[in-house]
C-alpha cells in the first residue's frame, strides 16, 4: 500500500484499461466518420477520384477559405451562420459544417447553446488552407476533378439518359475545386474530353444539351475515376463511329473495324472529331451551304482517318479546315468544344 492509500498496481491496471477503452472508442468513431477531407487536402491525386471523394467537399472548402479571410479581420471566434447567409445557402446547417471541420481538427468550435456555432481556425486548418491554395493552381488536377464531378453529376441527374443542360452543373456545390469556382471554360474543356472518350454526347437541341452514354454509365457504376476508365488496357484500337447529320441521315458509312497502324499515327482523335462534327453540325450558327460543306469536310476527314495508312498531311489539312469552319460558326459551347477537339487532334501530329 502506498503512503496515500492507493495501490500502485491497481492504478496502473486502471490506466491501461482506460487507454484501451479510449482507443476502442476512437476506432469506432473513425470507422463511422472516416477522415476523408484530410486525405483530399493532402494529395492532388485525391481531388476527387470518381467525383465523390467526400460528401459536401466543395462547401467545406469554401467555408475554410471564407474563414481564412474572416480570420485576418477577426482573429477570434467567427459565426459560421454568416457564411451561409453570404453564400445564400439557407438549407444548410451551420452546426453540421462546423462540427465536420472540428472533427478533422481544422477548427475549434465554441459551443453556444441555443445559438449558431462560432469557430476558430487551428494550425492544422491554416496549413490545410495553404495546401488548398496551391492545389487549385494545378491545372491538370482541376481538369481531372471537373471531368469526374461533372460525369458523376450527369449520371445522378439524367435518369434514363435524359438530356441535360450542362451549365446547370455550375450552380451546384460540386462545381468548386479546392474552394474556387469551376469556370465555364473549364467545363467546356472537360466536356470535350468526356465527348472524345464517348462518355457523354451532345444532342441536337436548343440550347445544346448533353446526355450520358451507355459507356459513361458503365464508367460511373464502376466507382472509379474517368482517368481510370480511359487508362484501361485495350487490345488494339477499335473504332465505332458514325456521322449523322441533323436529320439523322448517315453522312458517313457506319464502320466497325480494328486498325493496325504502323506509321506512328493515332487517328483516334481525328475520327472522334469527325463524328462529333456530324452530331452537332445543325446546332451551329451556319448557313445551309456552309453546314453542308462542314459535313463534307468531316466526311473526308473520317474517310482519311479510317484508311489503312492515314496520311499526316491530309489529316492536318482537313482538321484545320474543320477548325476554321467551327471558328466561323461563333462561340457556342458546341463550336468551342469542337475547336478544342480539333486543336488536340492537330497537336497529336505536330
Question: Describe it for me?
Answer:
The protein is mainly alpha-helical and 350 residues long. It is 54% helix and 9% strand. A three-stranded antiparallel beta sheet has the order 1-3-2. Strands 4-5 form a two-stranded antiparallel ribbon. Helix 11 runs antiparallel to helix 12 and helix 11 (268-280) packs antiparallel against helix 14 (333-347).
Layout of strands and helices, then pairs:
Elements: H1 8-32, H2 36-42, H3 57-73, E1 78-79, H4 80-86, H5 94-103, E2 107-110, E3 118-121, H6 123-135, H7 139-157, E4 176-177, E5 180-181, H8 184-196, E6 200-203, E7 209-212, H9 214-222, H10 226-230, E8 237-241, E9 255-259, H11 268-280, H12 288-305, H13 312-328, H14 333-347
Antiparallel strand pairs: 1-3, 2-3, 4-5, 6-7, 8-9
Helix pairs in contact: 3-6, 7-8, 8-14, 11-12, 11-14, 12-13, 13-14
Overview features:
single chain, 350 residues, mainly alpha, 3-stranded antiparallel beta sheet, two-stranded antiparallel ribbon, 14 helices, disordered N terminus
Instruction: Please work out how many helical segments DSSP would assign.
Output: 14
Query: C-alpha Rg, in Å?
Result: 27 Å
Quick one: biggest sheet? 3 strands, antiparallel
Strand order, sheet with most strands? 1-3-2
How many strands in all?
9
Helix content: 40-55%
What does the average pLDDT come to? Answer: 75
The portion of residues forming beta strands comes to 5-15%
End-to-end Cα distance, whole Å, is 87 Å
Determine the structural class based on helices, strands and strand pairing.
mainly alpha
Structural shape = elongated
Instruction: Provide the low-confidence segments as ranges.
Output: 1-6, 32-56, 235-262
H/E order of the elements?
HHHEHHEEHHEEHEEHHEEHHHH
